Amino acid sequence: MVQRDALGAYVAFTWPIRVPEVRAAASGVLGTAPAGHAANDGSAARSSGAWGLDHGNGIEDPVLLRRAQAAVSAAGTECAPARILVIEDSDSDAFLLKLALKKQEFRFELVRLLNGGEAIAFVRRLGCYGNAAIPDLILVDLDLSKPGGGDLLREIRSAGHLVGVPVCVWGSTRSACDEALLRNLGVCQFITKSAGLDEFMEIGKTIKELLARPKAA
């Protein structure tokens, strides 16, 4: 069985592997399911022949089976969406961010936390965030209050399970104080919330490029 976690799509395969299931996984067309539940659609398995060769004794060809398993593994990796966590209290900025990401035409899941309190609970894995999936990138609004963006960045950097996750901040203005804070906390990039729509849409490209960088160990 191949399965992705709480923030991603869920895919389940019956065994032995069937050809239509592998092809469906490669094209990303298998069903999705809500967090904590795997979609298990056996229709492809029921309507198709086995991937391995049946020699009449119920034993699948091991070479073909290994090839099928490798194909499924590769397909699962290619289909996995990028998980982006944004901590942002502005509805309009969150909406524009999602629009900017969509314009880049790549698979992503955008999870929004509305304030610093929710973000602290997420970082500390409290309550409903106890089993939350680790994001591929975290975007923090530097202008948050109670706790502020700086306090939240310190929490993130002290969380062992988030080591290696790129963290960037965004805000309307950038000061010398911000520059020093970013350097000390290892933030990978400051993104300006541009007033113009075209410039704001470029944020999607910036985030896509950040996700393509090799992750720090």
In short:
41% of the residues lie in helices and 12% in strands. The chain is an alpha/beta fold and 217 residues long.
Q: What labels would you give this structure?
A:
217 residues; alpha/beta; Rossmann fold; 8 helices; disordered N terminus
Written account of the structure:
The chain has 217 residues and is α/β, with parallel strands linked by helices. It has 2 domains: 19-79, no CATH class; 82-212, Response regulator (Rossmann fold), CATH 3.40.50.2300. Helix content is 41%, strand content 12%. The chain contains 8 helices and 5 strands; from the N terminus they run αααβαβαβαβαβα. Strands 2-1-3-4-5 form a 5-stranded parallel beta sheet, sandwiched between helices. Strand 4 (167-171), helix 7 (176-185) and strand 5 form a beta-alpha-beta unit. It is globular and about 65 Å long. The protein starts with 18 loop residues before the first helix and ends in a 5-residue tail after the last helix. The relative contact order is 0.12. The model is unreliable at 1-59 (pLDDT under 50).
